[in-house]
Design brief:
With about 400 residues, the protein is an alpha/beta fold. The protein folds into two domains: about 10-40 and about 285-385, Aspartate Aminotransferase, domain 1 (Alpha-Beta Complex); about 45-280, Aspartate Aminotransferase, domain 2 (3-Layer(aba) Sandwich). It has helices at about 20-30, 45-55, 70-85, 100-110, 125-135, 155-160, 180-195, 235-240, 250-260, 270-280, 285-310, 335-345, 375-385, and strands at about 30-35, 95, 115-120, 140-145, 165-170, 200, 230-235, 245-250, 310-315, 320-325, 345-350, 350, 365-370. Helix 5 links the parallel strand 3 (about 115-120) and strand 4.
Amino acid sequence: MSGRPLLNRRMNGLGTTIFAEMSALATSTGAINLGQGFPDTDGPESVREAAVRALRDGRGNQYPPGPGIPELRQAIADHQRRFYNLSLDPDTEVLVTAGATEAIAATMFALLEPGDEVIAFEPFYDSYAACIAMAGAKRVPLTLRAPSFRPDLDELRDKITPQTRLLLLNTPHNPTGMVLTAEEQSAIAALAIEHDLLVVTDEVYEHLTFGGATHVPIASLPGMRERTVSISSAGKTFSFTGWKVGWVMADGPLVSAVRTAKQYLTYVSAGPFQYAIAEALRLPDAYFDGFRSDLRRKRDLIGDGLRAAGFEVYEPEGTYFITTDITPFGEKDAYAFCRTLPERCGVVAIPNSVFYDDPDAGRTQVRFTFCKKDDVLHEAINRLRRLVA
């Protein structure tokens, strides 16, 4: 064999995801896993039973339609109209994917060419970096800085060049919990229109906002409908992350482009679960309100506990993650801190530093998830208090 590396050079530096690494560490040490964002309870029983019925009735056990089953595409369109007053054609403007991760990949592969630039919020969900790299494009980070993690819109304007193809937004934002305001969204939309940019939005935490923060799809703003690809999924809203049901929403030509790439990835997936998620999207407002309220309570529980344990805490406006700073412990390396945390006190967390290109911006930040049972959170907090001791 030649001396050429086996791994595509575009993937250099990506390696094993931090989530796999830290989850393996949790398993090997028996630590409480507050790293990877998956609930430790299932979602609504009615939704689970809908999946069972679909399996027993033989619906979706064979290949479903490439764009997704009609029932789910209609339910997605109805959801957008119900919550955001957005009108979508379920036949041409909705595409079902294997979770939001595949939706992001298919979108990047479809819309980017080598040499294109993508401006993305930093810290970024790690699949963004991989998908942009595999498309041969260049990631241009817009750094969100503690304590507010608000985007610097003047800096955003300065980063736009003739090579800029699209803006990749994530709101509510993982891992910081920042939610874009109406004013920020309007300013970003104005820049996109001025420079004729595409916008791709990852909105998987759309129903997980707290206090006065409200999620508004940028596609609903004037002039943005025809240039925006909106992505969401069922996993975070309904606590069935293993089902991997996501979707893309956009004007027909954009969806057609994304579907062209998507069909060569999984082609189709999650047949019976698609029927169940179609029912989930029609749950009453009480479900969405109750889910949000319960997570806000958990956010406050773990936030108070982390402060008591000695962390500096940045209270999130959305998602089910909370970012902290380890400087009060005299620590300066979040990755090293997280590698030793399971042995020190039996808890696993994620170092935000792996989500930054800037080596200094997130060096001391650590992310915890709070989508866990109350007794698990209480036990994790008790263990973390050993750090103070």
